[in-house]
Protein 1
Amino acid sequence: MSEYRIKVAPDTVAYADGENHKLVVEFAIPGAPTDTIDVKILEDSVHLTAPARDIEYVSALALGWPVKPDKAEATYEHGLLRIEVPFKDPMEDAVKVAIKVGGAETKTKAIEA
């Protein structure tokens, strides 16, 4: 038999660090055991589930700037989960396009009077 928990959106703060190199996201999830916290990060979103006693914290946060999920670091202390993840350079995956010179040959035609 599964336990019933009320789903609650945690207090959440998200901001860029002082140098604008990293996104910092903080979730207030007091009482959630560390081993039950599930955080998933994509380039454009952060997803959290964290059961705690008779409630379950759930959150889905859409990001306005892409991040590098594989470089994320998280710490949990005194009920505060803090995630730091570097922003992705929007040109990081850009492909340089070769430019051809010219195009169709242009021929001049003499105008007869």
Protein 2
Amino acid sequence: MSHAIAIGKVSEATGVKVPTIRYYEQIGLLPAAPRTEGNRRTYDRKDVERLTFIRHSRELGFDIDEIRTLLSLQDAPHQSCHEADAIAKARLVEVKRKIASLTALEAELERMVEGCSHGRVETCQVIEILADHGKCTFHDQIAHHDRVNESL
């Protein structure tokens, strides 16, 4: 397989910035690229595919260690996909937790804004709730959601 693609072209093709490509090489997510006589990195189609996989995984919120594991699984396609499923399921649980947290945050902010009488700061519901943590329902909603998830 010919290594003829310059790093700038790989960056354009994958949407991964040049410094990030170098970083992925440095940490071993991407094999070290062969160099030209002028010491310029060159890549091939497999490198582009691997970088696209990494970028897409990052967009979905997988961390570097998870991506490293997923890449090792991809490199050995005849094994069970159990570990890949487990990684994706754990990510899904985290996303659902964040959605619940954001939904609770949205409700709390709506409650604060709707409770505002648009009068003076001394009677401002927003300031009052921010100043008295006990008046904030956001944390109670998150704690309840976490307890429900733990019992499942």
